[in-house]
């Protein structure tokens, strides 16, 4: 887990810099949707695409993970 708040702050500043002077009004949603997607990708990669293992790693129910993967177009709806 990242315990380095200064590093996290710097990464957030760099991420926001691509918006220029005008940050979106829904910054919270935009920020967390982007970071959540990256966390899901990281977990899947770490678990060699095993969704059950990735769900355990993230502390999520497997069905919740599948819904999130579908919403981010990381998994096709079946």
What can you see in these coordinates?
This protein is mainly α and 78 residues long. It is built from four helices and no strands.
State the main characteristics:
single chain, 4 helices, mainly alpha
Report the order of strands and helices. Answer: HHHH
Q: Please give the count of helices.
A: 4
Report mean pLDDT, rounded to a whole number: 90
Overall strand count: 0
Q: How many angstroms does the end-to-end distance come to?
A: 33 Å
Task: Give the topology.
Elements: H1 5-17, H2 27-46, H3 51-58, H4 62-71
Helix pairs in contact: 2-3, 3-4
Put the structure in a nutshell.
With 78 residues, the protein is mostly helical.
